Amino acid sequence: MLKVYFTRHGETEWNAEKRIQGRLDSRLTARGERDAYLLGERLKDIEFDRIISSPSGRAMQTANALKRNRPLGIEADEELMEIYLGNWQGKTENEIKEQYPEEFYLYYHRPELFQNPEGESFFEVKKRAESFLNRLEQETSSGNILVVTHGVFLKAAYLICRNAPIEQIWRPPYLHGTGLTIVEINNRKTKLLLEGCIEHCE
């Protein structure tokens, strides 16, 4: 049996500005760094067999804070990257709403219909998440793995665990920076043990 400790990266400068990052990047804020430290304290006694992170700077910065003194390298895995949103990236939510009102509405209210000609659909992100989870169990069938990724990727992973459709991708909980999600994987069956917990931040 495999236990995967998923977390979203800490709060970034662009998160605080409500600016869409996607595959672009910004550094963690002071709050993001603090929350990553506090999550590290929460996880300090857990023996991890692997630490895997999205290669995005904000995720790697978070992963390094969580690694502490563990004698493990951080594995960068592109399947963990955030949804690619093309020309939305770098714009604020208000700017996107003004320039792409129909697409913006579909993104949040009809995700199964959302299409971005220069980016990914939610279906494509879910396919990436399925591929990652299947590969993870093939590579490491038991133990504990720490995974640092992004909000939409985690939401897609939730759908897989719940056997739920894309229409439910925005179902609660909201995934705050460094929120902890624990997934048990056994014989290709996934079970959510903890969802987006931020007790360490409070």
Describe this structure in words.
With 202 residues, this protein is α/β, with parallel strands linked by helices. Helix content is 37%, strand content 18%. The chain has 7 helices and 6 strands. A hairpin with a 2-residue loop joins strand 5 and strand 6 (189-197). Helix 2 packs across helix 3, helix 4 packs across helix 5 and helix 6 (122-139) packs across helix 7 (151-162). The longest helix is centred in the middle third of the chain and has 18 residues, at 122-139. The relative contact order is 0.23. The mean pLDDT is 96.
Characterize the overall form.
Answer: globular
Q: How many DSSP H or I helices?
A: 7
List low-confidence stretches: none
Residue share in β-strands: 15-25%
What CATH calls the topology is Rossmann fold
Separation, N- and C-terminal Cα atoms: 31 Å
Helices and strands, in order, run as: EHHEHEHHHEHEE
Give the C-alpha Rg.
Answer: 16 Å
Major sheet: arrangement of strands: 3-2-4-1-5-6
Number of distinct beta strands? 6
- CATH superfamily, by name, is Phosphoglycerate mutase-like
Secondary-structure-based class equals: alpha/beta
pLDDT averaged over residues: 96
CATH architecture heading = 3-Layer(aba) Sandwich
Provide the CATH top-level class: Alpha Beta
The figure for the number of domains is 1
Main sheet makeup: 6 strands, mixed
Give the % helix. Answer: 25-40%
GO molecular function: phosphatase activity
GO cellular component, one term: cytoplasm
InterPro entries: His_Pase_superF_clade-1 (IPR013078), His_PPase_superfam (IPR029033), PGM_Phosphatase (IPR050275)
Protein name: Phosphatase
